[in-house]
Amino acid sequence: MSDYDLTRLAGLGKQYAEQRAAAEKTREQLAPEIVAAARARVRQADIVKASGLTRERVRQICRAAGIDPE
């Protein structure tokens, strides 16, 4: 048996799980905003810059919403 104390590791694991859940919630909010911007005819380059996502990911989100990005 090891003398290693798992307290720090457990804390980091919990922190990771919480941050991952928060990231998922943000991602769920991000896609509809991208779609709204695209429907408002915001340039794709501006959506990419504002969102921090790649052009390809923005295209995928738009296509899934039935928008043909330029």
Description:
Helix content is 73%, strand content 0%. By secondary structure, it is an all-alpha fold. The longest helix has 33 residues. The chain starts with 6 loop residues before the first helix and ends in a 6-residue tail after the last helix. The model has no long low-confidence stretch (mean pLDDT 94).
Quickly describe the structure.
The protein has 70 residues and is mainly α.
Question: How does the SSE layout of this entry go?
Answer:
Elements: H1 7-39, H2 44-51, H3 55-64
Name the descriptors.
mainly alpha, 3 helices, 70 residues
- State the helix count: 3
Terminal residue distance = 61 Å
pLDDT average, as an integer?
94
Helix content, binned percent: over 70%
Could you name the ranges where pLDDT drops below 50 across 5 or more consecutive residues?
none
Overall body shape: rod-shaped
Over all CA atoms, what is the radius of gyration? 19 Å
**Relative strand content:** under 5%
SS-based class: mainly alpha
Tally of extended strands? 0
Sheet having the most strands: none
**Order of helical and strand elements:** HHH
